[in-house]
Amino acid sequence: MALTEARPLALPSGDEGNDYKPAGVFTRPTASTGWRSWVTTVDHKKIGIMYGATALVFLMIGGFEAILIRLQLWSPRGTLLSADLYNQVYTMHGTTMVFLVVMPIGAAFANYLMPLQIGARDVAFPRINALSYWVYAFGGIFLNTAWLMGGGADGGWFNYAPNNGVIFSPSHGIDFWNLGLIITGIASLAGAVNLIVTVLNMRAPGMTLMKMPVFTWMTLVTQFLLLFAIPVLTSAQVLLMMDRLFHANFFNVAKGANPLLWEHLFWIFGHPEVYLMILPAFGLVSEMLPVFSRKPIFGYPFIVFSGIAIGFMGWGVWAHHMFVSGIGPISVTTFSLTTMFIAVPTGVKILNWTATMWGGKLKFTSPMLFSIGLVTMFTIGGLSGVTHSVAPADSQQTDTYYIVAHFHYVLFGGAFFGFVGAFYFYWPKVFGYMLNETLGKSNFWLMLLGFNLTFAPMHILGLQGMSRRVYTYDAGYGFELWNKVATVGAFILASSVFLFVFNIFYSWRKSKSLPPVGADPWDARTIEWMTPSPVPAYNYDPIPTITRVDDFWYRKYGETKDGKLVRIAETEDVVQKRSDGKHIHLPSPSYWPIVLAFGMPIVAYGLIFSLWLCLIGGLIMGAAIFGWVMEPPDDPDAAHADHGPDDHVSDDGTAGELTEGEPSAEADADADATKEAETVG
Q1: How far is the C-alpha of 300 from the C-alpha of 302, rounded, in Å?
Q2: pLDDT tens digit string along 156-208?
Q3: Which homologous superfamily is 45-590+631-677 in?
């Protein structure tokens, strides 16, 4: 039976030896290893791994589309792609990279790390967590099946109206785009609610909000952005679906509709979208820089509140994407000012990261190099972004390659550099062995070179007047050289991604002949590193009591009266020993999340091709919901504790955490263990 997830329930006094089985429990075949263990898992750690692996697969697809774009623009009058196919390729490239790569990688780290960082054994709703992954996976697959059924969407990743209407795009590509993103939006909403509830209700004893790690804070802000931004996009997509499939007129100019409605709805979602992609990377870098600078993060409250400020202010800058759409001088002035102001909290983060490194004992490991890469590349992207706040300059830059350069410096140079660094940093925690450091450093320098060769020339191309979203250009305008440089850079960048993938397989093979790296190979600061590596199914046994920010660090180190850092405990004395977990309450693995998610694309196919398919998909979803409701909440083959008077069950049928302040035998035992381990005065 799979030991998937754990819940901290107190064993009632005198009942420790009971062989408890909930009424009505029936045994279902599951596996602790093999593909069934992954298909049925509700373990937040396995789900995080699946998010990351699936995002890397979509990265390969989106990267291949990017290479096709650069080959088409290698020389004037390129003939590799037709105009129509080029429109499809760049639309699907942007959509894939934003919705199926960058956002899900952030979700991968949030799912795996956030419960560990707050000292929880699980997320609040494990089955809903599994559902969110499978909905994302099926939504991404559905979106890409458009290539097999007439071609992909061809209106850009933003799909402006009225170009997204049937008149200008009669194929089903935009229908696949529209319904696919509605499906993945459901995944994002389910994940957001789950993670918000987890952070607010399941923190370890003593962990107040201002003792949470920075990554957990940025995850929380990101989930709130998702919670309010996704419904805005979904509302626009429902209107578009009604226009395209049921002959409504929400964006039909001939019937008096205003196509700017789509732009407003899309960018009200789209600019918070930028920050919900970058904030998780900011949080990860804020965890890595202190470790390799041998210093705590500089200005912890400032870096937390600057992230919160970015989340709030991100809602007030959407119309700087619309300066040339005729929204009027008052709106242009207002959004110019808000665009300038949002640079302030972003600048605070950059200054905090710089101050963290300043005077530290820097160790240039692979994670550190990628972290510094994020700080420098994002700074360049931020500076080019500030120029968009000047409306006359923005009017010249809009729809040129200058915008493409800025966008990629922010998202690839920012988010992706941070995520790759975090892969190197957290790999030993997840899998018990490290990725090869020599290959990792080569990976960084190759990626840095390829990235700058690809996107730095686009600033020049944009200022020279080369329009984006054009499939070819004429000779004699000065575009040839920089397009060739960008194409060479794209191939170098692609080779750096392949080197990362090669490092994964190379390190995996080498790990079989190497000793385990241990729980804390980097001498880290936050409490996820006090669990064994790989992390056991139950995460913690017992749940730790938290006394300060970077609690794990202060269990290992103290300061003398003159401020000198001294070691007060060895890592092996602080790291939890692996237990059998027999007293820990486990939720049951389940097939129903994948079955429920599978019904959604069938409904979507039905909306496009035949409403009878909608009926079939609806029946599958209905059966899955019924099976979900009737399924026993617990793993019948795992050790169980009787429900005590203070224990409760969460809404999706899994056992919940004790709320803060409720007494439990486990909390008392943990407090005693913490007093023994904590020797800092």
Answers
A1: 5
A2: 999 999 999 999 999 999 999 999 999 999 999 999 999 999 999 999 999 99
A3: Cytochrome c oxidase-like, subunit I domain (1.20.210.10)
